[in-house]
C-alpha cells in the first residue's frame, strides 16, 4: 500500500525478493495534473502494472466494505504500507496474519504525520531517519520494530527520500523475515512527539526575512515539490522562478533582506542574516537552467521579495 516514488522504490525491492509474494497493490486513485487535467497514475500503480500485479484504488477503506472483504480474501501475512496517504481502519489493520507494517520517514515519535521529511528539513535538524513500525489506529503511534538515522546536510526532500528508501529496505526485509520466528518484537515509542503537517502549495513561497541558513533549509525542504517559488523584479517586468539549487554566502553589500543582486554572472538573494547565491533555477514556463544562462540578457531592477511572492520595490541599487 503506497503512492509516491518513495513507495514505488520500496515495492521494487519487495518484488526482487524471492521469498516475498505481492498478490495485490493498493494506491491512491489517479489524480488530474497539468493544464489538461489529465488523470495521472501514481508511481506505485505504474510499477505494479508493469509487473502485472492487480491494483486497487479505493477512495476509502473505511467506507467500502466490499474492499475490506476483497482484502480479507487475499489472506495476507502482512500489510506493508509506505506513504499510502490513507487512514486504515482497525478492521483492516486486524486482517494480516502477522502484522500491518509501516515504513515511516522519521525517527518516531518525532515528525508523525504526512510530511516528515519536508518538515524536518524546514526545521533544520541535522539528522532524521526511517522507522519500521507496527501500525495501530493512532497516527504513527505504533511500536517500532527497527530504525536507522541519516544526515540531512545538503539534501533536498527528493534526494533524502531516495536515500531513505535504500536505508529502509534492508530494515523492512529483516523485520518481515524475523516476525514469524518471534525474533523481532516492536518497542513502544518514547520521547517527545511532534507532528509533520501536509505540505501545501503555499509552503513553496519563500520568506527571505529570516537567516540564510533557515531559508536554505526551507528551499531544500520544498524541492522538488511544490518547489521554491519567488518573484524577481526585472526591468522587463516581474518573473516568477523556482529556485532549484542555492548556497549560503555573505551579505557584503549591506542590502536589506529581500534585495535581489546581480553581479559578474551571479544572482544573490539577501536574507535577514547572510544571503543565498543562486546556482540553478527554473523560470515559469521554461526549462531548468544555470544562473548564468538566466542572467544572459536580463537586467535586474532593485527589488525585494516577500513571503507571498509579491514585488516590493526598494529603489535602484
From TrEMBL:
Taxonomic source organism: Candidatus Desulfovibrio intestinipullorum
**EC category name:** transferase
| Protein role | Attaches a formyl group to the free amino group of methionyl-tRNA(fMet). The formyl group appears to play a dual role in the initiator identity of N-formylmethionyl-tRNA by promoting its recognition by IF2 and preventing the misappropriation of this tRNA by the elongation apparatus.
- Short name of any one Pfam family annotated for the protein: Formyl_trans_C
Q: Where does (6S)-5,6,7,8-tetrahydrofolate bind?
A: 106-109
- State the protein's name: Methionyl-tRNA formyltransferase
Domain Formyl transferase N-terminal: from-to ranges: 2-175
- Residue ranges of the Formyl transferase C-terminal domain? 198-299
